Amino acid sequence: MNHKMLRHRQQGVALITALLIMALLASLSLRLSWDNAMDVRRTMTMLYHDEGSQAALGAESWVMSMLRDDAEDSQTDHLGEIWAAEMPVLPIESDTIQGVLHGNVQDLQGRFNVNNLVRQNGNIDQQSLEQFRRLLEVLNIDPRFADLSADWIDADQNAELAGAEDAIYLGMIPPYRSANQHLTSVSELAALEGMDKATFDVLLPHIVALPGRTEINVNTATFAVLRSLSDGISNEIAESLMSERAESGFANIENTFAPYLGAEVARGLRETSDYFQLKVVVQIDTVRITYFSVLQRDPQRGTVVPILRSFGTI
Ligand SMILES: [Ca+2]
Ligand SMILES: [Ca+2]
User: Fold this and answer.
1) pTM of the model
2) Within a domain: residue 3?
3) Does residue 148 lie in a domain region?
4) CA of 270 to the centre of ligand 1 (A)
5) N or C: which end of the chain has fewer CB within 10 A?
6) What is the per-residue pLDDT across 124-175, written as a single tens digit (0 to 9) for each?
């Protein structure tokens, strides 16, 4: 090999080395800028999430004071009151953030409290069980789920005729046990034997799990819950009751319901509420937060406190 050829070869190696270094640097810089973009995105998402959570808690404070004012200003609770109106879409704006917030408040005592199915001593309350069966029939759902729910909550392991206890649930894959105590969330009923999502979604707007035994506010009760009060309340009667109460509630619930209900059931009715559910949806950029809060109002003390908060699902 002469000198000329050797020099050419050395130059070729140097060129390839230089190209390799260039390629390496380019890929490194691409990687760094990608990581950097991801870091910025992650930080912004966390920031938006924090801001969104704060906005949801702000909305909760606002609704709590609205419910306190309502207790001072009115003797009854009905769907024409300000708390029952859908919240307008409110802007969330600052130097760095732009988003929106909307939500609503629902009266939870317009629904059937599944914890009414079982008395404090752990035994099934037959009257509430019958009412739940009627509610399911009105909704075209198998009334067997009333017995299943009662067994799920009652203290014992004796299955009702159409019910189920651990003997059934332990045979499932995966196996599980019934709660045998009062519920904190109706979502537990999704675990009932034979319950599917479609059925549960139909049932959900009409049921609630409130602490202890509660009465039903007929001013806010759903159509199906009104019908469930008695076999004597037909579709037509329930429709006329709905139009009688309109948006300002019944003038006199005793007189209105006396023809349809026995004294025992009538005692479980009222025209005020102590439990409400706030739902807030916050959207900032691509971050969306859904916040639920169950609020308990004590009209005697004039207080409203959150008793169950959750992000995402009820
Ligand atoms: Ca009121
Ligand atoms: Ca049981």
Assistant:
1) 0.86
2) no
3) no
4) 12
5) N
6) 999 999 999 999 999 999 999 999 999 999 888 888 778 888 888 888 888 8
